[in-house]
Write a structure and sequence with these properties.
single chain, eight-stranded mixed β-sheet
Length: 178
């Protein structure tokens, strides 16, 4: 499994999502109308950035033609939907959590994929090359705006240089998230 963690600004998060959409990716996000999957558009990106947390599945025609698989959970009257992590032709997971420092709003974002997927005919496949290529491009783009920073005894993440340079309280805000 490949996974990268970032603490970035709202502008950087929106730019990442818009660039992925403009590259032909379809990004399903965690708002469903019953079992209908909703996809981000460049105009609806702010719907995700206003959420406290978001769980998304990215598909691209270079590696997948299927829809993300979802599972329906119920607990009494409470019902929710979640993407099936290993099902399908492959997808990139993008998860985010919004948090505040004293002055600014930031996002803890993880981008990743699993080491295998299970297709409809129950065949185990490795992550497709197109998936890996899109993942690497997205991660390199965000990393270029960040510095790898130790935020705890053994925890480090890529933190936006804009955050480090503009907010003297950024480290305590990031540590509070962990």
């Amino acid at each position: 499994m490949a996974s990268s963690e970032f603490v970035i600004t709202e502008e950087q998060y929106e730019k990442l999502l818009r660039n992925l959409i403009n590259s032909g990716s379809k990004i399903a996000y965690d708002v469903f109308e019953k079992t209908k999957i909703l996809y981000l558009t460049t105009d609806s990106v702010t719907e995700v950035t206003t959420k406290q947390s978001a769980f998304m599945a990215l598909k691209h025609p270079s590696f997948a033609s299927d829809e993300p698989a979802i599972v329906n959970y119920k607990n009494g009257d409470f019902e929710w939907f979640q993407f099936k992590e290993l099902q399908g032709d492959g997808h990139i997971k993008i998860n985010s959590r919004r948090f505040l420092s004293n002055l600014y709003q930031y996002f803890y974002v993880t981008i990743g994929y699993t080491s295998f997927f299970v297709t409809k005919d129950e065949t185990y496949i490795p992550p497709p090359r197109g998936l890996i290529s899109i993942y690497n491009t997205a991660v390199r783009s965000v990393k270029s705006q960040c510095s790898r920073t130790l935020i705890g005894n053994s925890v480090s993440v890529h933190v936006s240089k804009a955050i480090i340079g503009n907010d003297p309280n950024w480290l305590s805000a990031v540590r509070a998230q962990f």
